[in-house]
Design the sequence.
């Protein structure tokens, strides 16, 4: 078992590196950009997530003996390339959107500056992390908006691969969820963990009453009892009989939720359990949550739909060479030109233009090379969107770990407030604000 | 950094364990079953994948100092439970479908036998692995059927979280793909790796000709040149001029593929490059592959759609208690009864019924407890579907690693041949064979 992330890489990155070391272009200063041409699924905004994870994975992007042996034994690259990789560490600079920031079509989410050799090998790792985490965060933010002030917990680990589940819990938390069922996410990122009980708990016991009684004895009356194993009405009645009217909550995991929630609320109130909360957890997504806004539901648990990006399990971000120096050291903006998938060459600087505090445009200034770009003069109150994440190989540690996760969440909740009202609707539409392209001054 | 997988677990599993240790039910012998009530997306069959990975992860499912400290510091469970977890290792038995096997609604994909304490804690890990890997394998198998004899490579790592990408490469390989771009999958599971070049390779150079020339010099004329950076027709002409008519292949990553492929084939033939192969890689899924069956395409590279399960990124498998002993030691079949999501109690044994070598039914025999179940007498030529994966805590290592992956792939390709013709169609429909429930004799 190794912790190197160096082989989370597509083979062609290393074979291009080998060819570039051979022809001398490996040393050319380059600017790669990670961006998305569109927002998936007619979403009105995207949420950047994964940046903090990526920085930690970048630290482990080293080719050790095991990695080099695999590459040598399988003739992936030649001896000169193996020698280069043995000493590889990223020594370039990465600027990017803060984690939790919103993005729109063309937003330069990451700008990776370095030699071709430095930067080309990071394509797969950077895209893997940001495409997955941003897809989850984008869906999660919509759910969090739909839930309003009601608590919202992520409990989809079982519907995502085991490591992705941890990353998804983190992305959902950044985008406004309040807790996760995933213990590893709690340990790794300091995310609050929660849970109730499964149907197996009730079925393990001789009857529902023994199950409820045992749970109350072990976990206290503040716990949440799952009441839909046999018959919901009987389950609720039994729950209050066993726990008393101070029971913390009941969970409903099946049935037609708006109807069932109203019935259960009425029944709880009749029984005097007016403070007992109702948590619902059955196949929720942002639409189902919105549809429950007028129902007497106190908390939501969301599984499958949040960890799979609610229909869009990956963002459509790409990693493209946008500028490089020629042999004489002059910067040349570059871009694929043919057919579809055309993109815009040149390094980008990005600003959120605001009018009276409300976002009005994603303003992107294009320059050829490494020049510093000021806030565009037409948009003097624009907010610069890029920060330095890695400078000459030094990773800014403040974006990592529990601290980075908490600050990404705070940043997201803050910048979401800048969105115009139409951004909050769930239906498919155009991006909430236009992308304005301007020339760098 | 730890390699323990013990916290890839939902919090409620440990709190149920705590309550069960307290009331004595933790020791009750139990049978949990992992199954799916339906096939996602109107698919006609599902493909089991992830079993080999799960067994390796199960070996690391131990609560070490770090895990126990987190649970203690966050008051997840009490001291008695911490003491139990400190010594935890799974000592039960797991039977299951062989990896690569087909599954249908109700198929008992895994049967986990042990005490409640032994088995309840594995719910999330088992579901995470099997739901993800099986979703990918199911989509991949359809693509592999659509591709027929043409080589098919998985290159979707950038559209899946970094660890899932490795698992997805493995699942796709098991389901019939021939190679992956992911180097870690090559190292870990012995899967053949492949790759061509990116648009950045061409853009790095002063012109397309220098890029092609350099690639040929470094990698030989058997390489595949990416010809759509500027203009495909000019790119193809240049590729053959630089490499000669023995050029291995050209890759097309954009445009209307049936039209473009035909044009490129005609152009290559005119230039005398009749042996130069055409690889296409632009947004393919099983439907696009099928639509290219009559086009002169030699190989497919599939990205996003295979790693995201082609619209169904997770299988809908669940992990349910289906039988347990009561206080007197008698077996009791159990199942959730209310509303939707009802399931069938009792331990299942599964057989693929065959008629003249063609699968005719998924025959599932139900018994209350641990009884051995014979091939049903009505289906004497039925093939038993379950094998022992873990016996009294001992993991069968033959299912793990490169060896297990290769044998899962061979098994899949073999059992796929048993399917009736209607199973191979891509449109949404019912499962290809019915599930027959019989009582165990």
Sequence:
């Amino acid at each position: 078992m190794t912790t190197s992330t160096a082989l989370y890489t597509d083979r062609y990155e290393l074979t291009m590196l080998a060819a570039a070391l051979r022809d001398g272009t490996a040393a050319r200063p380059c600017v790669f950009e990670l961006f998305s041409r569109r927002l998936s699924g007619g979403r009105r905004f995207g949420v950047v997530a994964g940046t903090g994870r990526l920085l930690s994975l970048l630290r482990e992007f080293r080719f050790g003996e095991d990695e080099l042996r695999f590459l040598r034994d399988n003739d992936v690259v030649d001896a000169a390339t193996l020698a280069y990789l043995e000493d590889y560490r990223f020594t370039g600079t990465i600027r990017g959107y803060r984690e939790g920031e919103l993005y729109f079509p063309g937003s330069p989410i990451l700008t990776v500056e370095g030699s071709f050799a430095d930067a080309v090998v990071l394509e797969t790792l950077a895209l893997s992390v940001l495409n997955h985490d941003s897809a989850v965060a984008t869906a999660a933010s919509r759910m969090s908006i739909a839930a309003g002030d009601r608590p919202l917990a992520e409990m989809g680990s079982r519907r995502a691969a085991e490591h992705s589940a941890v990353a998804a819990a983190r992305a959902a938390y950044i985008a406004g969820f309040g807790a996760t069922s995933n213990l590893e996410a709690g340990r790794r990122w300091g995310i609050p963990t929660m849970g109730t009980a499964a149907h197996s708990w009730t079925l393990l016991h001789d009857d529902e009453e023994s199950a409820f009684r045992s749970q109350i004895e072990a976990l206290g009356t503040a716990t949440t009892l799952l009441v839909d194993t046999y018959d919901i009405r009987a389950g609720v009645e039994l729950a209050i009989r066993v726990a008393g009217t101070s029971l913390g909550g009941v969970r409903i995991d099946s049935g037609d939720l708006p109807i069932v929630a109203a019935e259960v609320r009425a029944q709880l109130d009749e029984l005097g359990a007016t403070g007992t909360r109702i948590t619902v957890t059955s196949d929720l997504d942002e639409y189902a949550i919105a549809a429950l806004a007028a129902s007497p539901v106190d908390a939501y648990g969301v599984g499958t739909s949040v960890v799979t990006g609610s229909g869009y399990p990956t963002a459509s971000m790409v990693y493209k060479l946008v500028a490089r120096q020629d042999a004489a050291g002059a910067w040349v903006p570059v871009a694929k030109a043919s057919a579809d998938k055309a993109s815009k060459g040149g390094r980008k600087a990005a600003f959120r233009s605001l009018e009276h505090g409300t976002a009005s445009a994603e303003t992107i200034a294009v320059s050829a090379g490494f020049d510093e770009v000021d806030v565009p003069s037409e948009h003097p109150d624009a907010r610069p969107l890029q920060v330095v994440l890695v400078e000459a190989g030094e990773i800014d540690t403040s974006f990592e770990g529990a601290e980075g996760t908490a600050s990404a969440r705070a940043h997201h909740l803050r910048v979401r407030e800048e969105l115009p009202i139409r951004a909050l609707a769930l239906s498919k539409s155009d991006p909430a604000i236009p992308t304005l392209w301007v020339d760098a001054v």
